[in-house]
Design goal:
Blueprint lengths: L31 E5 L3 H13 L3 E5 L2 H10 L4 E5 L7 H9 L10 E5 L4 H9 L4 E4 L4 H21 L1
Parallel strand pairs: 1-2, 1-3, 3-4, 4-5
Helix pairs in contact: 2-3
Length: 159
């Protein structure tokens, strides 16, 4: 058999601009989310998904930068890759938990392909609140930060 396929294509006026956003503004009900992710493709995927949900994002490329950003600014939550060069995500989570005041209590969500039960327990032991598995499911990425942030806020009000 021989098959022919014709796909009409239109040439774009200008190349598609891929935003390597370091910081995006939040929508009206959006969260301020710090994304610690060293892989550029994963950065683009996560930032695009979060921006579509109305969240503001700042991307850092390793655990040390995540600790600095958590120390220097207020975030609603941190999405933390686990395997990063230099300081890994578990170590960064422990360091963030050592910060004084509310910045040390920011919700931290592991963002990783390593989602076995014992690995999830290790993330919780490192001070993380939950995890989102890679490849990232849009519904999970939408629901997990909101749930974790709401839980932390409720705990703060009860204390």
């Amino acid at each position: 058999s021989t098959f022919h396929v014709s796909v009409p294509l239109v040439r774009a006026q200008a190349p598609l601009q891929v935003h390597r956003a370091r910081e995006l503004p939040a929508g009206p009900a959006g969260l301020r989310i710090l994304v610690a992710e060293d892989n550029e493709v994963n950065q683009m995927v996560v930032v695009t998904m979060l921006a579509q949900m109305g969240h503001a994002c700042r991307v850092v490329v390793d655990g040390a930068a995540a600790v600095s950003a958590a120390r220097d600014d207020d975030w609603d939550c941190v999405l933390m890759d686990i395997q990063m060069p230099g300081m890994d995500g578990e170590t960064a989570a422990r360091r963030i938990r050592e910060l004084p005041g509310p910045r040390g209590r920011v919700p931290i969500i592991a963002l990783t392909a390593n989602a076995l039960l014992e690995e999830q327990r290790a993330y919780l032991a490192a001070g993380m609140d939950d995890h989102v598995a890679k490849p990232i499911d849009m519904d999970t990425l939408r629901d997990t930060p909101r749930r974790v942030v709401a839980t932390r806020r409720a705990e703060s009000l009860a204390a």
